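Try it yourself: sequence plus nicotinamide-adenine-dinucleotide, in.
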Amino acid sequence: MRLSVIGCGYLGAVHAAAMASIGHEVVGIDVDARKIDALSKGDAPFFEPGLQEILTDGIRSGRLSFTTDISAAAGAKVHFIGVGTPQQVGAHAADLTYVNAAVDSLLPHLSDGDIVAGKSTVPVGTAAELADRVAASGATLVWNPEFLREGWAVQDTIDPDRLVAGVPAGAEGERAAEVLREVYHPAVAKGTPFIVTDYATAELVKVAANAFLATKISFINAMAEIAEVTGADVTQLADAIGHDARIGRRFLGAGIGFGGGCLPKDIRAFAARAEELGRGESVGFLREVDAINLRRRDRAVQLVIEALGGSVVDKKVAVLGAAFKPHSDDVRDSPALDVAVRLNGLGAKVVVTDPQAIENARRVHPQLNYLTERDEAIRDADAIVLVTEWDEYRRELSPDHASTLTAGRAVVDGRNGLDAAAWRAAGWAYYGMGRP
Ligand code: NAD
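Structure, out:
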C-alpha cells in the first residue's frame, strides 16, 4: 500500500522505515531539511536499535523515500501524522501547533477515500475537532495512537502488543479500520489485539497508559522515600510485592525516576485537559506523581553531597549516563542529565559520559564536560553516579576495575542497578535510592 508519514522524528522515522520493511511503499515527510537529508541518504538521524538496518534496506529496495515536499503525500492511501506535541511554553497543556500545521499542509493533497491516521499523542477531543476539516477533503480521520518504547521502537512498531484505532461511527469507520488492518497485516495475521473504538477512547487509551506507567514508577519511588527514613530496602520491597501477579515487578524499579519526550509532558497535558473538562480532581494524583518523580532527582544530588562529605565543590564527579534511558540517545527531560546539571551548578567538576547521547546532551547543556570513554570519565573521580542503566555501567563496570581508575571510593546508584554487595566488598561506599 502507498503510505505517507508526516513528521519523521523518533516516532515517524521508525514508523516509515518499519512500514517499508513489511512491504509498503512509504514516503516520509518532515519540515526539518537536515533530518530529511540524513534519512534520504539512509543515515538514521538518531540512535534507535535496528533502525539503521531497516532504513538502509528500505531505501535500497526503492520502497522508502523522504522529502520536505508535502505534495509527495498525494497518491498515498493512508497518511500518518507523527509530528511532535510538546508541552506548551509556560503551561502544562500540549502544544498542538504542529499537528494543526501538518494537517493543514496535507489537506490540499488528499483524495477521496484517503485515510489520515493520527499517531501523535493528543489531548482527548483533538480528533473530533480535526475530523470535519479532513472530511471536507474527502478523506477519513482515524486516531491510531502509538505505544512504542524508545530503545525497542522498531520491534514495537512491527510487532506491537496491541493496535488501537479510533474511527468515526458507521460504514465509513468500518472501512477505515479495515484499511488499517491491511496496513498492519503481519501483526493482525498473528492475532495481535486490534481494538476498534471511537476517537475519544483511542486518544484516552494512550494517555491513560502513560499515566498508569508514570504512577507505577512514582508509587515505588514514594515507597523509596519511606524506606529512606525507616531503614527498609525498597528493592526487596519491590521484589516482594512484585510476586503478586496483580501488581507485577515490572516498572517497580525505584531510582531517579522517569523522563523523556513522552511521560512527563503527557501526564501534565492529561491533567491540564482534565481541568478544561471540569474533571481536574479525577487525575489530581498525576500532579503528585510528577512531584514525587522530580523529588528523586534532588535525592540523588543530596546523596552525592553526602557521599563527598557535605560538599561537592571542586570534587570530580563522573556521571554515567545522559540519555533518559538506555538504548536511546534521547535526552529530552532526562533525569540523568538533570542530575549532572545540578551537580555542576553546585560547583562539582562534572564529567558526563554516555554511549550514545553525548552529542544531543552537549547541544542542550554545552556547559558540561563530556567524554565518550567510560574509563576516561571515571579516571581520578572522587565519586561515580550511575544515572542511566546502560549495560556498560550496570553490568560491565566492576568495582575492582573502577578502583584502579578513581581517586575516591564513593558510588551513588541512581538506578539501583549495581550489585551493592559487590561494590561494598570491594571497599566502596555505596549509596542506593531507597536502600540502607
Ligand atoms: P520528535 O520531536 O522526535 O519528532 C517530531 C517531528 O515532527 C520532527 O522531526 C519535526 O521536524 C516534525 N514536524 C513538526 N512540524 C511538522 C510539519 N508541519 N510537517 C512535517 N513535519 C513536522 O517527536 P517524537 O518523539 O517522534 O514524537 C512525535 C509524537 O509521537 C508526539 O506526539 C509524541 O508524544 C508521540 N509519541 C512518541 C513516542 C516516542 O517514544 N518518541 C512514543 C509514542 C508516541
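One thing you can check immediately is this: The chain has 18 helices and 14 strands.
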